[in-house]
Amino acid sequence: MSGAPEARVTMTVVGVGGAGCNTLNRLKEVGAPVKTIAIHTEANHLKAIKSDVKLLVGETVTGGFGSGGNPNVGERAIMADLDRIMAAIGRPHVLIVTGGLGGGTASGGIAPILSAVRDRFPDVIRIALVSFPFSWEGLGKVNNARYGLSRIMGVADLTIVNLNDILSKKIGYIQVQYAFKYADSLLAAVISDLANLFYMPHVVSISFADFEAVVREAGLGAVGLGVGGRVADAAKTALGNILLDAEIKEADSALVYLQATPTTSLEEAGSATKLLTEDYLLERVYWGFRIAEDLNEPRITIIASGVRSPTLEGLLGISASR
């Protein structure tokens, strides 16, 4: 109807700690159309971050020198400036908080932020996108990550976890600087694709209600990105690129986001969703399709929610699907 108000989904991405802030740098490089907020306890690192808002938190606690790998210090730093953080976040439709668990700032700070948003604005969808440290980084970091993740899962709608040990198995042969850039790029690509769901024109759209059905109070999630000569190949690559030991057949629901050329046929476009419904027997699969003139090959992002992870269940001592 002419003159009808436009309903626009708003999305804010918060990077907490070193790895979380690095992801925001990559988001800026790819031009993701989202508001970004960098939160850190280390002043020098924060200076190098490109973000719409930068918050040095807990100066009275850390002096701007970081949390020293202590989640309790990270939490105190966040709580000391929680009002500033909440003012910066506002009330978006979707809040994504990302960080690398194992240190102090993200392990101690992500959960209090999500908890505050849940308490003040329960309608906001809260997604945590975090990485779990390499096992060889030592028991101290692993225990920090366990502490942080157990609390995050209690306050996030969807918690997507990437296990660095699986990342190491896939790309452990490349140079360290490129390996971490690759990890940052993966997270940034996921966030960018989520933003594109709502901000770009589509041949087949995923509504905000569909998105909410996949992620609201969904527990543990897994994500994979893939490209291939054909859509089915890209989907198989995306499933193979999931950095969590999740059994996709046990997922409650999934979201498939396809970006491909205008020549893509209906049968070809539907092959990714068909893979999940027929081979993986998922009953609830939402799919979207955007024509991307700049792509030479189909690109697919798959998000599965309500999954189980034997690794995380063993580490946390509980069922990690909820």
Quote the beta fraction: 15-25%
**Largest sheet, described in full?**
10 strands, mixed
What is the arithmetic mean of pLDDT? 92
CATH homology-level superfamily of the largest domain: Tubulin/FtsZ, GTPase domain
Q: For the record, what CATH class of the largest domain applies?
A: Alpha Beta
List how many beta strands DSSP finds: 10
Strand order of the largest sheet: 3-2-1-4-5-6-7-10-8-9
Low-confidence stretches: none
Q: End-to-end distance, in Å?
A: 42 Å
Order of helices and strands: EHEHEHHHEHEHEHHHEHEHHEEH
Which class do the helix and strand fractions yield?
A: alpha/beta
CATH topology title of the largest domain:
Rossmann fold
The value of Rg in angstroms is 19 Å
Count the DSSP helices: 14
Helix content: 40-55%
Structure overview:
The chain is of the alpha/beta class and 322 residues long. It folds into two domains: 11-194, Tubulin/FtsZ, GTPase domain (Rossmann fold, 3-Layer(aba) Sandwich); 220-305, 60s Ribosomal Protein L30, Chain: A (2-Layer Sandwich). Helices cover 44% and strands 21% of the residues. The protein has helices at residues 17-30, 43-47, 59-62, 71-80, 82-89, 105-120, 139-152, 164-171, 176-199, 208-215, 231-240, 266-269, 271-279, 310-316, and strands spanning 11-16, 35-40, 53-56, 94-100, 125-132, 158-163, 219-227, 253-260, 285-291, 299-305. Helix 1 crosses helix 9 (176-199). The longest helix has 24 residues, at 176-199.
